[in-house]
Amino acid sequence: MTATGTEAIETALRALGAVPDDQLDIAEAALLLAALDRPLADLAPYRRHLGDLVTTLAAAEAGPEAGTRALALSAVITGEFGYRGDNDTYDDPANADLMRVIERRLGLPIALGILYIHAGRAQGWRVDGLDFPGHFLIRVEGEDGSLVLDPFHLGRIADPPIMNELLRRISGEQELRPEHVRPMKAREVLLRLANNIKARAWKAGDIDRSADMLDRMLMLAPNFAPAWRELGLVEEKRGRIRQSIAATERFLVLSGSEGASLEAQAFLHHIRRQLN
C-alpha cells in the first residue's frame, strides 16, 4: 500500500493498530509514524532501502549460531550501510524519525534497533528489543543461545559488564535485573519510539506537538491506557476541555489501576466544572 497524504497515512496506521502484535510490521509502522510529518513525501525509496537491508543480510549467509547472526547484522547495518548512533546531536528529533534516520544514517538506539529487528526477523530469526532503561538494546537468538547488541554503538555485543556500566551511567541503578532485559513486543517498541519524540516536545514546552505524538501512539495502540490519561492532561492544558474529558473517560474505561482511576476521576470532576 502506498500512503500519500495525512488521511491515508493515518488510515494505514490505524489498520496496523488493529493487527495482532506478532503480525505488526515494525519498520513500516515506524516509517508511517515519521511520514505524518511529511505527508506528501514518496515512501517508495525508504521502503526499497528497508528491502535492501533484508536482501544484503540474506546474502551474508549467516549460520544458525547467535554469534554469526549478531556479527552479520552489525556488519550489514553498521559496516555496509554506515548506520551509527548520533552522539553529537543526540536530542535532535530527527534521531527518532525513521525517514530522517535513513537519510542521515544516524539515530537514537531505538530507531537504529528497529532496523536491526526488521532485517533480522525477515531472515526468520528471533530478534527482540529489550526494555533496558534509557538505552534501547536488542537480543539476537540462535540455536546455541542469545547475544545482546547495542545498535547505538556500532552494533557491539553488550555483555553483562557493558550493560551494568550503561545502567549505572544512564539510570544510576547499580544492579542489572531481569526486567531490564525483558523482551518487548513490536507495539511496545513503537510506543517507546514515539514517546521519545513526545517527551522531548513536552520538555521544550511544545504542547501541540506532545498532543500530536500521543494521537499517533493511540493510532497504533488504541487501548493503551497511559496515553489516554496523558492526552487528557495535555488537552486540558490546550484549553480543549471536551477533548480532555473524552480522553480521560476513555482512560477510566481501560485503566486497571484503582489508584490511577481515583486520580483520574478527581481530574475529570475538576475539568467538567470548567464547562459550567
TL;DR?
By secondary structure, the chain is α+β, with helices and mostly antiparallel strands.
The total strand number stands at 7
CA radius of gyration is 20 Å
Category by helix and strand content: alpha+beta
Portion of residues in beta strands equals: 5-15%
Low-confidence stretches: none
Number of helices: 12
H and E string: HHHHEHEHEEEEHEHHHHH
Q: Which of globular, elongated, flat, extended, rod-shaped describes the shape? A: globular
Largest sheet: 5 strands, antiparallel
Mean pLDDT: 94
Straight-line N-to-C gap = 47 Å
Major beta sheet, strand line-up = 6-5-4-3-7
- Helix percentage: 55-70%
Question: Can you put this structure into words, describing what you see?
Answer:
- It contains 12 helices and 7 strands.
- With 276 residues, the protein is of the alpha+beta class.
- A hairpin with a 6-residue loop joins strand 3 (127-130) and strand 4.
- It starts with 5 loop residues before the first helix and ends with a helix.
